[in-house]
Design brief:
Elements: E1 2-7, E2 13-19, E3 22-29, H1 35-49, E4 59-63, H2 69-86, E5 90-93, H3 95-101, E6 109-117, E7 120-129, E8 132-135, E9 140-142, H4 144-154, E10 158-161, H5 163-167, H6 169-173, E11 179-181, H7 191-203, H8 222-229
Parallel strand pairs: 1-4, 4-5, 6-10, 10-11
Antiparallel strand pairs: 1-2, 2-3, 6-7, 7-8, 7-9
Length: about 230
């Protein structure tokens, strides 16, 4: 089984190929160009590195957010198109879930915090469980001060991971609650983690049709907000 994993919910483009045999090839790009320019060439490059044809893929998995509007749209649209053309099963996984999965070896509570721009962050709280993490809350979006208030209300020591946590570190430390911060190397959801999370679903055949996979935006796009204001 060879899966193609696509994660574009942040400013990074992350793609991986692999499956039960582990990672065959992966690439992380954080260039100035947009996801639309980077994603297809990256997929083609990795297929070449792995000496694979598209018709040798077994499935496609994609991070569905929450995250940045344009990146999510590009990633999900590309994954859906590939799954439809190649007649492959597809699995969508929350991007914050992927981010929290990278911190699964901690012993306490985790909060995955992604930069949402506009002075806001996306976040959710998790607990480590054998083999991964389980999400305890719905996805939320708001200011770092609002997340700090949630941390203060719980009073529980929490590991904060993600670029949103690093960007608003001072505001989150001001909550008065004991917090730790993940490193910059684990600040973004990675396609390798996505592939590892999705693999059991493909094995259990818990997959979807392409049209069933939709981005999880949590909030309205800039265009929708501007139309409402106008």
């Amino acid at each position: 089984m060879v899966l193609l994993a696509i994660e574009t919910s942040t400013r990074q483009t992350s793609v991986a190929l692999g499956g039960q045999q582990g990672v065959l090839a992966s690439q992380l790009v954080a260039a100035g160009r947009g996801h639309a320019e980077l994603l297809t060439p990256t997929i083609e490059h990795l297929l070449g590195l792995a000496v694979l044809r598209p018709d040798q893929l077994s499935g496609v998995t994609v991070g569905v957010g929450p995250g940045l509007f344009t990146g999510l749209r590009v990633g999900v649209s590309t994954a859906r198109a590939l799954a439809q053309v190649l007649r492959l099963p597809i699995v969508g996984i929350g991007s914050l879930d992927i981010l929290a999965f990278s911190a699964r070896h901690t012993s306490g509570r985790i909060s995955a915090v992604a930069d949402a721009k506009r002075g806001e962050v996306f976040w959710a709280f998790y607990r480590p469980v054998p083999g991964g993490v389980t999400r305890e809350t719905e996805y939320a979006v708001g200011t770092a001060e609002r997340l700090a208030a949630d941390l203060e209300a719980s009073g529980e020591e929490t590991l904060l991971v993600g670029d949103g946590a690093l960007r608003y570190r001072a505001e989150l430390e001001a909550s008065g609650t004991p917090v730790e911060f993940g490193s910059a190397s684990s600040a973004f959801p990675h396609a390798e983690s996505l592939m590892e999370l999705a693999l059991p679903r493909f094995i259990r055949e818990e997959t979807a049709r392409p049209e069933e996979i939709r981005p999880c935006y949590v909030r309205k796009s800039d265009a929708e907000i501007n139309r409402r204001v106008a």
